[in-house]
Protein backbone atom coordinates (compact mmCIF):
# COMPACT_ATOMS: atom_id res chain seq x y z
CA UNK A 1 0.00 0.00 0.00
CA UNK A 2 2.84 2.42 0.66
CA UNK A 3 3.53 2.68 -3.08
CA UNK A 4 -0.02 4.02 -3.61
CA UNK A 5 0.54 6.98 -1.28
CA UNK A 6 2.33 9.89 -2.94
CA UNK A 7 5.39 11.16 -1.12
CA UNK A 8 4.79 14.49 0.61
CA UNK A 9 6.04 17.47 -1.38
CA UNK A 10 6.29 20.88 0.24
CA UNK A 11 4.36 23.67 -1.52
CA UNK A 12 6.60 25.68 -3.84
CA UNK A 13 6.21 29.42 -4.26
CA UNK A 14 3.99 31.94 -2.57
CA UNK A 15 0.75 30.92 -4.29
CA UNK A 16 1.09 27.26 -3.32
CA UNK A 17 2.06 28.15 0.25
CA UNK A 18 -0.99 30.41 0.66
CA UNK A 19 -3.35 27.80 -0.81
CA UNK A 20 -1.82 25.13 1.44
CA UNK A 21 -2.47 27.37 4.42
CA UNK A 22 -6.09 27.86 3.30
CA UNK A 23 -6.58 24.12 2.91
CA UNK A 24 -5.01 23.46 6.31
CA UNK A 25 -7.47 25.90 7.88
CA UNK A 26 -10.52 24.60 6.03
CA UNK A 27 -9.65 20.92 6.44
CA UNK A 28 -8.18 21.15 9.95
CA UNK A 29 -4.85 19.60 8.92
CA UNK A 30 -1.31 20.21 10.11
CA UNK A 31 0.23 20.10 6.64
CA UNK A 32 -0.80 20.00 3.01
CA UNK A 33 1.53 19.18 0.12
CA UNK A 34 1.60 20.48 -3.42
CA UNK A 35 0.45 17.15 -4.89
CA UNK A 36 -2.38 16.65 -2.38
CA UNK A 37 -5.95 16.25 -3.59
CA UNK A 38 -8.49 18.39 -1.72
CA UNK A 39 -11.14 15.67 -1.73
CA UNK A 40 -8.79 12.85 -0.71
CA UNK A 41 -7.80 14.97 2.28
CA UNK A 42 -11.42 14.98 3.44
CA UNK A 43 -12.78 17.94 1.51
CA UNK A 44 -16.38 18.08 0.32
CA UNK A 45 -18.73 20.56 -1.36
CA UNK A 46 -19.24 22.83 1.65
CA UNK A 47 -15.53 22.96 2.42
CA UNK A 48 -14.60 23.68 -1.21
CA UNK A 49 -16.92 26.71 -1.08
CA UNK A 50 -15.12 27.94 2.06
CA UNK A 51 -11.78 27.41 0.34
CA UNK A 52 -13.00 29.29 -2.77
CA UNK A 53 -14.07 32.25 -0.60
CA UNK A 54 -10.69 32.35 1.16
CA UNK A 55 -8.86 32.10 -2.18
CA UNK A 56 -10.90 35.07 -3.44
CA UNK A 57 -9.98 37.07 -0.31
CA UNK A 58 -6.28 36.25 -0.60
CA UNK A 59 -5.79 36.57 -4.37
CA UNK A 60 -8.74 38.72 -5.46
CA UNK A 61 -9.59 35.99 -7.97
CA UNK A 62 -12.94 34.30 -8.46
CA UNK A 63 -12.14 30.61 -8.85
CA UNK A 64 -15.26 28.78 -9.95
CA UNK A 65 -16.32 25.66 -8.09
CA UNK A 66 -16.15 23.86 -11.45
CA UNK A 67 -12.42 24.64 -11.71
CA UNK A 68 -11.85 23.51 -8.14
CA UNK A 69 -13.64 20.22 -8.84
CA UNK A 70 -11.70 19.73 -12.09
CA UNK A 71 -8.35 20.65 -10.51
CA UNK A 72 -8.42 19.30 -6.95
CA UNK A 73 -4.60 19.11 -6.76
CA UNK A 74 -3.04 22.04 -4.90
CA UNK A 75 -0.28 22.69 -7.47
CA UNK A 76 -2.83 22.71 -10.32
CA UNK A 77 -5.06 25.25 -8.59
CA UNK A 78 -2.02 27.44 -7.83
CA UNK A 79 -1.00 27.36 -11.50
CA UNK A 80 -4.52 28.30 -12.61
CA UNK A 81 -4.52 31.26 -10.20
CA UNK A 82 -1.07 32.39 -11.39
CA UNK A 83 -2.16 32.19 -15.04
CA UNK A 84 -5.25 34.24 -14.24
CA UNK A 85 -3.13 36.81 -12.36
CA UNK A 86 -0.66 37.02 -15.27
CA UNK A 87 -3.51 37.55 -17.75
CA UNK A 88 -5.06 40.22 -15.52
CA UNK A 89 -1.70 42.00 -15.22
CA UNK A 90 -1.22 41.87 -18.99
CA UNK A 91 -4.71 43.27 -19.57
CA UNK A 92 -4.00 46.08 -17.13
CA UNK A 93 -0.83 47.01 -19.01
CA UNK A 94 -2.55 46.86 -22.39
CA UNK A 95 -5.45 48.96 -21.10
CA UNK A 96 -3.12 51.55 -19.60
CA UNK A 97 -2.02 54.70 -21.37
CA UNK A 98 1.57 53.49 -21.56
CA UNK A 99 1.16 52.17 -25.08
CA UNK A 100 -0.63 55.11 -26.61
CA UNK A 101 1.52 56.56 -29.33
CA UNK A 102 1.91 60.27 -29.64
CA UNK A 103 0.59 61.68 -32.84
CA UNK A 104 3.18 61.49 -35.57
CA UNK A 105 5.30 58.75 -33.98
CA UNK A 106 5.92 55.35 -35.45
Structure notes:
The protein is mainly α and 106 residues long. It has four helices and no strands. It has helices at residues 13-27, 45-59, 65-70, 74-95. α1 packs antiparallel against α2. It is globular, with a radius of gyration of 18 Å. The mean pLDDT is 84.
Keywords:
106 residues; mainly alpha; globular; 4 helices
- Described by the principal axes of the CA atoms, the overall outline is globular
Structural class: mainly alpha
Mean pLDDT, all residues = 84
Q: How many strands in all?
A: 0
What summary fits the major beta sheet? none
Could you tell me the radius of gyration in angstroms?
18 Å
The helicity comes to: 40-55%
Spans where pLDDT lies below 50 across 5 or more residues: none
Q: Which band does the percent of strand residues land in?
A: under 5%
Spatial separation of the terminal alpha carbons: 66 Å
- Helix segment count? 4
The helix/strand order is HHHH
What is this entry, summarized?
This protein is an all-alpha fold.
Layout of secondary structure:
Blueprint: H1 13-27, H2 45-59, H3 65-70, H4 74-95
Helix pairs in contact: 1-2, 1-4
Amino acid sequence: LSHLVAAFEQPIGETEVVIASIWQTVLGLDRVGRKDNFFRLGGHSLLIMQAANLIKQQFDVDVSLEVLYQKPILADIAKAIEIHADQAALSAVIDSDEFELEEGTI
